[in-house]
Amino acid sequence: MAVKLTYYGHACFLVEGGGSKMIIDPFLEGNPTATVKPSDVKVDYVLVSHAHGDHWGDTEAIARANNALVIANHEISVRAANLGLRSHGLHIGGGYNFPFGRVQLTPALHGSSFPDGSYGGNPAGFLLTLEGKNIYHACDTGLFYDMKLIGEKGIDVAILPIGDNYTMGPEDALRAVQLIQPKVVIPIHYGTFDIIKQDPEKFKAAVEANTSAKCVVLRPGDSLQL
Ligand code: NI
Ligand code: MN
């Protein structure tokens, strides 16, 4: 058994492990870099970090088509339930042991309104523990010093935004790597739109010159096996 991460562009990953399949932040329709359509996605769980359209994305369509459980903060889980979807609400700092493994919500410095402007609670990141691996998906956030506390758990893979403008840019993401000290870093949330254009190879070079982490640049459609 191994955990497999497949990048679908922007902040979206398919995670296979613990006997389940889950998708994180399924922004596919309207994502110019996405390599799959919502109707192609077969999952048991949909994890949503915050309510912005480029993260909530196709949650409704995917969760409905798969009868998948939506895992998110309380406010997003209530919205999902009101749409007739199955949902499980958590809150920041809280975690729950699901059949596939554990999901804990981590802090994120960001916003979380739904595309219609309604309240989506506080934004979060995810600490996933499955098959003995710790995966920290920071989701949309600025740099914060408490990333060091998350890193103290021993992070196998840190998934960090580098796009700047809406989230950390490459310089702060490098500082995040220094705080978290993960084994592997995957940069995300860049290149989807011109305003968040970045050079991931330049980021990889900076990470590998300044930290002991390995940086893996995934193109949409690429996978990493842990
Ligand atoms: Ni956002
Ligand atoms: Mn975003």
In percent, how much strand structure appears in the residues?
25-35%
From the spread of the alpha carbons, the general shape counts as globular
| Integer-rounded radius of gyration | 16 Å
Number of helices: 6
**CATH topology-level name:** Metallo-beta-lactamase, Chain A
CATH superfamily descriptor: Ribonuclease Z/Hydroxyacylglutathione hydrolase-like
Biggest sheet details: 7 strands, mixed
Write down how many β-strands occur, each being a DSSP E stretch of 2 or more residues: 14
What proportion of the residues is helical, as a percent range? 10-25%
**Second rung of CATH, namely the architecture:** 4-Layer Sandwich
Bound molecules: nickel (II) ion, manganese (II) ion
Summarize model confidence as the mean pLDDT: 98
Question: Regarding CATH, which class?
Answer: Alpha Beta
What is the domain total for the residues?
A: 1
Structural overview:
The protein is an alpha/beta fold and 226 residues long. It has one domain (4-225): 4-Layer Sandwich (Metallo-beta-lactamase, Chain A), CATH 3.60.15. It is 21% helix and 29% strand. The chain is built from 6 helices and 14 strands. The strands form 2 sheets. It has a 7-stranded mixed β-sheet, covered by helices on one side. Strands 7-8-9-10-11-12-13 form a 7-stranded mixed β-sheet. β9 (124-130) and β10 (133-137) form a beta hairpin. α5 (170-180) packs parallel to α6 (200-210). The radius of gyration is 16 Å and the shape is globular. The protein binds nickel (II) ion (NI) and manganese (II) ion. Manganese (II) ion binds next to α1.
